[in-house]
Amino acid sequence: MSGFLAVLVIVLIFIVIFQIAKASEYVSILKGEKKARQQSNRINGFLLIAFLVLGLIGVYYCNDLLKGKILGESASVQGEGVDTLIYVTLAITGIVFVITQILLFWFAFKYQEKEGQKAFYFPHNNKLEVIWTVIPAIALTVLVAFGLKHWFQLTSDAPKDAAVVEVTGKQFNWLIRYPGKDGQLGRRDFKKIDEAASNPLGMDWDDQLSKDDFMATEVHLVVGKPVKFVIGSRDVIHDVGLPQFRMKMDAVPGIPTTLWFTPKYTTKQMKEKTGNPDFTYEISCDQMCGSGHYSMRGVIVVETQEEYDAWVAKQPLQYSLAHPAAAPATPEAPKADSTQKTVAANIK
Amino acid sequence: MSNEATLHSQQEVMHGAHDHHDHEHHHEDSFISKYVFSMDHKMIAKQFLITGIVWAIIGAFFSVLFRLQLGFPDATFPWLESILGHWAKGGRITPEAYYALVTMHGTILVFFVLTAGLSGTFSNLLIPLQVGARDMASPFMNCLSYWFFFLASLVMMASLFVQTGPASGGWTMYPPLSALGDASIGSKIGVDLWLTSMALFVVSQLLGGLNYISTLLNMRTKGMSMTKMPLTIWSFFFTAVLGVLSFPVLLSGFILLLMDRHAGTSFYLSDIFIAGKALANEGGSAILYQHLFWFLGHPEVYIIILPAMGMVSEVLAVSSRKPIFGYLAMIGSLFAICILAFLVWAHHMFVTGLNPFLGAFFVLLTLLIAVPSAIKVFNWLTTIWKGNIRFTPAALFSIGFVSTFISGGLTGIWLGNSSIDIHLHDTYFVIAHFHIVMGVSAFFGMFAGIYHWFPKMYGRFMNNTIGYIHFWVTLIGAYLIFWPMHYEGMAGMPRRYFDYSSWTSFNQFGGLNAFISIVVILVFATQLLFVFNFFYSIFKGRKLTEQNPWNATTLEWTTPIHAGHGNWPGEIPEVHRWAYDYSKDGRDFIPQTEPIGPNESAH
User: Fold this and answer.
1) Domains with residue ranges and CATH for chain A
2) Alpha-helical segments (H) within B22-134
3) What percent of chain B has pLDDT above 90?
């Protein structure tokens, strides 16, 4: 019923607008084309300049309203460069935006058709054209130079001492694997994937490097220590998006990718900094991956070395989960750990 | 004249008649040959336009539906269930339906509306009229071009009604998601229909594009040298070149995708474990598809925007009563954009794991495009400077075009720089950027074209008052919708999410999302007002009483108000000057057909 009423109201508004429009068309015919044109010119000229003024106020207001809800301080060392580049680009494009929009609407208002006014025949001027070819070219050169400098830093090889975490996307969650004590991830093969046997990544148990690898439900990182993500996918393309760290990398089946960064603040510190007790570092999937795309959420916990070590000590080795009989071989695997249950739930 | 001969021979072939038509072309057309399988470029233009309008309503309505979900994720709308059935159980769109709507919105708007509806309409209408030709080089191919588009439309429309729904992997249709029916319900028969439809669409584009190019290169009237052509024609030329060179690459990408789906090949597939089993495919690269796709995909955005640029240049000159400033620079910048369009595709792929060194070249070439774009903007500004501007609805939409092109173009400088893209890629910032610069701007160019050339198409005017309401609501609404999205993107809010409520990083924009959705509904309603104005004016609009209502210099206004097939009743007029002699030597305008006077100053 209310839907029907809403449609009725809209149709009525349409009819009213239409009748007004039709009437004004007759009026303009009566008044003569020239007079009608002068009148609509004055109204639209006024609206153009009003739009400019209100628009610029609106831009300021929108910024005031939303600036507290966006960027925040970069939570990674590498992200600082990204932010600097954003601000430099904002300054340059912001200036150009304000100047060109003012010129556009001001010219439109000022040079609206008037009685006795003649347009100025001005087909070209080489000097002007050279000026506005060269100035943008210089500004862009600066941006390209800054941008590429950061780009090569961001994409450089991770430091040798960086921690390694493997993040593998699947519909619709993230599988996280740590290399364990040896610091090296074991071999894996997608044909060995067997969820029933606690092997969601297809880890190759013949590889000695696999034996001390463990999986987790959250990524835990040590503050101030560089970390390298080894990224992959089990099915379709996903994307590891780390908004607070200003990082992003696709997870492509068959083609491993990497990214690395150094977290600056622990999760606890960020809660204080942002004044938000619910603050969480999140991994968002940024590449359309199917109907559960929007729910593909991962959590990153940044903590101190001690907290991290305590956490690692509690993680059961994936090898022992996959080989319950051989469990005694791994002394540090508490059997009915809560994490273990969530891992099991996760891989379903 | 050679083009008359072509036209005649075409008609004879089709009518099977050998009686010679006189130059006035008063031949008797049946309803079918006049309105359905017409070979008159003007009628084909109208067919493209009206089909485009129908698609635009559907595509925009889809955006209203998914904006309801984004704006009001907790609300239920029982009427949704009555239109969408089990896709909106209980009045709430399912994620599957949401992704189908998003995908079809993109596909429809990008290809069917802003490619076929925009350049299909105006290239067809204006190329013969403005270069002084009786019709296209091949009217038959032109007719086929429309009907292939119509077939593509039918197949795409059919895909909306299959049980597993239409394609739902995003308009870019990235494999493996689009290649595997197990990965998504929309990747079952939906993607096959999508690919079939797009293949037919590519055929339509090639038939059209080759025709546009050969017509404007070979069939210009006497005196119409390339540098005397209006900028509209130049822009249609470069648009057609872009399409002809890049659409075949897209088609090849689609064929490989079809083979991966049905022939067991592994072009794009490797190392995949899905639905509980490992697939046999090894050695393919999912990234290969992205290269093939974006090799068209990026030129595609220029296929969309160049015709709008051309029409805006023309309308701004006519309504400012001034020559377009820097005519040659305008052509040069179109040319530069056309070349660069082919060299920047991988800026859509900075975060795919692309070699960073290769990425650096794409950063450089991408930001280089800002230079010709800046030239165009400054030239438009100088065109209206010291003009005597008449604010017709077309002029207002042209001014709006320049405004949105600046706003959306500048954010391209952000995204083209890979170090910023690494944060903003696939967020709402990207949505804001491309909707403003190629969605809203291209629509503004299209609206400018429709309001300006409506009298030529139908011999009547559209209602001005509704035109003004349409312009102001659309301009203000477009900024209200897309401007705040930049902020959401800066927070890293990913695009193509069905619901943000479970995220602590992105759930701070609830009120803003609802606000945007309300504005979307208002703007959509206003577009319906435009559609009503369009169809009402075809039959009841104020009649055109003079040949040249805007006092324009170009050739289309030298044809009779209701030009028959063949455009000019007598000889095709000869051209003596460029298209932009406005306010020269104290005269308001000098038509292109007027010989250069002995005392006239050179421009």
Assistant:
1) 163-347 (2.60.40.420)
2) 31, 41-71, 78-84, 95-107, 121-131
3) 87
| Residue-wise pLDDT tens digits, B197-248 | 999 999 999 999 999 999 999 999 999 999 999 999 999 999 999 999 999 9
Chain B hits for A114, Cβ within 8 Å: 388
**With an 8 Å Cβ cutoff, are A255 and B96 in contact?**
no
CA distance B304 to A106: 28
CB contact under 8 A, B386 and A122: yes
CB contact at 8 A, A270 and A244: yes
Residues of chain B contacting A3 with CB distance shorter than 8 Å: 78-79
- Cross-chain Cβ contact B423/A86 below 8 Å: yes
- The complex's ipTM works out to 0.91
Q: Which of residues 64-83 of B touch A (CB under 8 A)?
A: 78-79
Q: How many CB pairs under 8 A join A and B?
A: 373
Spatial contact of B344 and B412, defined as CB atoms under 8 Å apart = no
Pick A89's closest partner by Cβ from B327, B413, B580.
Answer: B413
The whole-number average pLDDT for the span B64-70 is: 94
Structure tokens given for B470? 């349409």
Other C-beta atoms closer than 10 Å to the C-beta of A84 total 14
Query: Secondary structure of A73-93 in the HEC alphabet?
Result: CCCEHHHHHHHHHHHHHHHHH
Chain B, residues 225-254, CB within 8 A of chain A, namely none
pLDDT value, residue A27: 86
pLDDT of residue B23: 47
B35–chain A nearest CA distance, Å: 29
Residue B481 CA to residue B523 CA, distance in Å, equals 9
Q: Topology of domain B2-8+39-271+281-589, per CATH?
A: Cytochrome C Oxidase; Chain A (1.20.210)
Question: Contact, B300 vs B201, CB < 8 A?
Answer: no
